Amino acid sequence: MTEDLSNMHLTKAEFQEYGYQLVDWLAEYFDNVGQYQVLPSVEPGDIRKMLPVSAPEKAESMDDIIADLDRVVMPGVAHWQHPGWYAFFPSGASPVSALGEFVAAGLATQGMMWSTAPSATEIENTVLDWLVDLLGLPSSWRIDEGPGGGVIQMSASDSTHLSLAVARYQFELSGVDTNSLVAYGSSHAHSSIEKGARIAGFKHIRSVPVTSTYGIDADAFKQLVQEDIESGLVPAWICSAVGTTNTTAMDPIRAIATIAKENGMWHHADAAYAGSAMICPEFRELQDGVELVDSYTFNPHKWLLTNFDCSIFWVADRSKLIETLSISPPYLRNKTEDNPSAVDYRDWHVPLGRRFRALKLWFVLRSYGAENLRTFIRSHVEWAKELENKVLGDSRLELTAPRTLALVCFRHLDGNDATKKLVDAINSSGSAYVTPSVTDNVSYIRVSIGSTWTEQRHVAELWNLIDTNAGPR
Ligand SMILES: Cc1ncc(COP(=O)(O)O)c(C=O)c1O
Question: Does residue 83 belong to any structural domain of this protein?
Answer without folding.
Answer: no
